[in-house]
Amino acid sequence: MKTRITELFGIEHPIIQGGMHYVGFAELAAAVSNAGGLGIITGLTQKTPGDLANEIARCHDMTDKPFGVNITFLPIVQSPDYPGYVKAIVDGGVKVVETAGNNPQEYLPALKDAGVKVIHKCTAVRHALKAQRIGCDAVSVDGFECGGHPGEDDIPNMILLPRAADELEIPFVSSGGMADARSLVASLAMGAEGMNMGTRFIATREAPVHENVKQAIVDASELDTRLIMRPLRNTERVLTNPAVERLLAKEKELGENLGFGDIMDEVAGVYPRIMSEGDMDAGAWSCGMVAGLIHDIPTCKELIDRIMSEAETLISSRLGNVLQN
Ligand SMILES: Cc1cc2nc3c(=O)[nH]c(=O)nc-3n(C[C@H](O)[C@H](O)[C@H](O)COP(=O)(O)O)c2cc1C
Q1: I need a surface site. Which of 82, 89, 122, 176 has the fewest CB within 10 A?
Q2: Average pLDDT estimate for 295-307
Q3: Of all protein residues, whose CA lies closest to atom 22 belonging to ligand 1?
Q4: Residue 166 is part of a domain; what is its CATH number?
């Protein structure tokens, strides 16, 4: 399958693995890229730019195919060393960056001068248009279904994708709620040039997370996610567990008086305990509604091959047949 996204990134299949905190290590990025998609290392999971440089080098050892790095621009006062992370990316010869969170404009010149293609992840058409205006090469349009931060507009992909198609000139991929060939074909029909998946890629053999995390996704249904931190305008979709229910009870009780300090126990520093140690009740962790469509733990290659072959059948047989009847 050839789209503007496969051409832009030099990949075989229009499937991207989104950056994921404590999941997007070199093992997963390389497995996705080796399977013909675009794997992405999560920059900020690496504590320093030097650690990111090492992770990029490890990924180069595991694949000759293109892979990317995610840089998430966080809404916090004490920023990580973003210039250092950008330098590690450029010096490491990475050719694709997925930006997310705040506006990446300040770092675009350094990336563009080094020939890095930038795909910005956004949850609103106005943000996608801004990304286009400041010179991003593509956008990842993240609907309300998504695991992680869906923004505050709550527009699901059935509306958001065609809206993006109506407005954008640069290519975009769908993101949020994507799991299989049906997701890919529907995304293409709505004007996207590929799809980005997060939660689906956690439940793969190569994802370097504890088996408990993969099993929790397989066991979950589409009813099992919750939105947290809404009162802080930093909404996150997470899988429910006792820590999340405790957090939501605090939100209800404190209302507008809720501060980040009130929920530290449930959100701060919990990712290593969940993802590496498999302590599933340690706190809140991002997970999409798409868990309801995930029933197995294949290799990345099995997953991507299955999506591509079923997508071909869907397009040529099911949709083709509809036309003939
Ligand atoms: C566990 C987890 C951690 C994530 N961490 C990040 C992150 O650090 N930066 C980022 O830009 N997106 C992050 N995301 C969002 C994903 O990149 C992707 O946009 C999202 O998962 C898409 O929705 P889906 O889960 O329905 O596929 C995370 C998602 C999950 C599930």
Answers
A1: 82
A2: 98
A3: 176
A4: 3.20.20.70
pLDDT at 325: 64
Tokens of 41: 């290392």
Residue ID of nearest Cα to ligand 1 atom 5: 20
Same-domain pairing of 177 and 41: yes
The shares of helix, strand and coil residues in the chain, as percent rounded to the nearest 5, are 50, 15, 35
Ligand 1 proximal residues by C-beta, below 6 Å: 18-21, 23, 42, 70, 72, 100, 121, 142, 145-148, 175-178, 196-200, 285-288, 290
Say yes or no to pLDDT of 2 above 70. Answer: yes
Residues 70 and 152 both lie in one domain = yes
Residues 204 and 215 in one domain: no
- 274 band by pLDDT with thresholds 50, 70 and 90: very high
pLDDT average, residue stretch 145-154: 97
Please give the distance, rounded to the nearest whole angstrom, from the Cα atom of residue 148 to the centre of ligand 1: 5
Q: Which atom of ligand 1 is nearest to the CA of 201?
A: 27
Alpha-carbon distance of 81 to 271, in angstroms, equals 20
